[in-house]
Amino acid sequence: MTVASKQETRVRGGQADAPGRGRPPAALLHLAGLALIILAWQLLSLLSSHLGAPLATIEALGRGFADGWLAEATADTLLHVAGGFGLALAVGVPVGYAIAVNDFAYRVFDPLVQAYGSIPRIVFLPILLTLFGAGGAAKMSMGFLAAVFPILVNVIAGVRTTPQALVRLGRSVELRPWAMAVKIRMRWALPLLLVGMRLGFGIAFVSVVISEYFGSTGGLGVELSAAYAALEPARLFAIVLVTVIVAAVVNTVLLRVDRRLSG
Amino acid sequence: MSATLRARRSRPPRAGWQVPATQAALVVGFFALWEAGAASGLLDPLTWSRPSVIVTELADLIGTPETVNDLAATLTTLAAGFLIGASVGVGIGIAVARLRRVQAVVSTYLVALQSVPLLVFYPVLLTIFGLNRGPTVIVVAAVTMVPVALNTTAGLGAIPRGLQRLATSLMLSRSAAYRKVFLPAAIPLIFPGLRVGFLAALVTTIGMEFIVASAGLGYRVGQSYHTFAVDRMYANIVVVCVLAILVNLVLTRIERSLRRDVTT
């Protein structure tokens, strides 16, 4: 009995608590988290000479950008990620929409899309390399193959969950199919499309870097393998740091957009 | 009334066989086009190979000690990485669910970790562990851990108040409450995390093998590319695809049966 009532007050107390009172502010916790990560990194780098220490990494980062190669490699990679990602959007949204609005098409294609999604796309890289050579087209198509799946899946899920009431509303004001798609179904699916874009950009980015590592003419992956081969941990860490920062920035931007849209 | 309603709702738009028939036609058509293109010389055999050749190559491949070794290497790496990642993930998920104070912040980090290209860390791991399976297992575990942890936290957060009261009124110890009440109740939500984690683990295992390993299915694809064995390369790709699709089918089946247990 006493245990139960104690539980009760604890839960109720937690609910009544005003946000910001009693618990530390989020910004402070984030700062603490970041400090903890840097501290752990510093300690680990003291243990092993194979790890670039935080300061040395920042220095290598600055030197890389000052000498130009790091900015060049980042631009090269991002350009191809953007290309593949844009293509995936251009293909994934209309195709996903077409699959989702037709019940028969959905039942035929959804299992095929799921099956495609479970395949490790990286195994297609050799095919792309024999097709396009080691230039930009191969890694751009790799980015496309990776990004198109989450975009497809989320567009399909978003469009399929459009409330019937909204669809009927659209029909009652006699929207044309195009307006129905843009104003009703895709508007409803937008938050999920953003999720798909976020996931899609993430894997497109990794896939392009991996493709570059496997064989390419330039980009972060090439620099990564060069730094690894040259046994320069600080340079290696600087490149890894760039990829982490790029991923974090894009992720945050898309999350912000998502939050603003959903109110 | 209810009969007509049910009849209207369950009336399939097409007969049941039409969906699998269309799917089969699509797949067969794809390979037929491919074969025709290769036979007519439109598709360069050195780039595209050809389905009939790939099939004979596949038949050669299956059962050879090399394939068996590769399969064993891939599956053991996958299993090790997945098991470590899933256990750590469930542990972190429980911890985060209980530490309400930091829950929001830690969850943000976990979501952010999902977007970090973890695979990019392998050269760092390679310099530490050397060219063995260590780096692969660690990256696979990290990739598995994130969705499992997020879903565990979500699953534990969604436990009905009634079950919490039940655990308290039975005076279960904390660990017993988790083992007997909370975790079983959260399984329908944890399982999708395990499924996503397993698929991510498979993709990562193959990817890591592709770039760094000296054995495994992913390695074999890359190696046949480097030796210009185009037909062999396609056959190896088919093996990976079939494995992935089978894994996905099994996991979907399990998930569906778990959900049915919950809803009825």
From TrEMBL, chain A:
It comes from the Bacteria. The keyword Signal does not apply. Residues 12-21 have a biased composition (Low complexity). The keyword Transport applies. The chain crosses the membrane at residues 26-44, 78-101, 122-138, 144-167, 188-214, 234-255. It comes from Nonomuraea corallina. PROSITE patterns: ABC_TM1 (PS50928). Keywords: Cell membrane, Membrane, Transmembrane, Transmembrane helix, Transport. Residues 1-21 are annotated as: Disordered. Its main location: membrane. It is found in: Cell membrane. SUPFAM superfamilies: MetI-like. CDD domains: TM_PBP2. This is ABC transporter permease subunit. InterPro entries: MetI-like, MetI-like_sf. Residues 74-254 form the ABC transmembrane type-1 domain. Belongs to the binding-protein-dependent transport system permease family. It is a multi-pass membrane protein.
From TrEMBL, chain B:
Signal peptide: none annotated. Keywords: Cell membrane, Membrane, Transmembrane, Transmembrane helix, Transport. It holds the Pfam family BPD_transp_1. PROSITE patterns: ABC_TM1. The chain crosses the membrane at residues 71-97, 109-131, 137-160, 181-213, 233-251. It is found in: Cell membrane. It is a multi-pass membrane protein. Residues 71-255 form the ABC transmembrane type-1 domain. Coiled coil: none annotated. It comes from the Bacteria. Belongs to the binding-protein-dependent transport system permease family. This is ABC transporter permease subunit. It comes from Nonomuraea corallina.
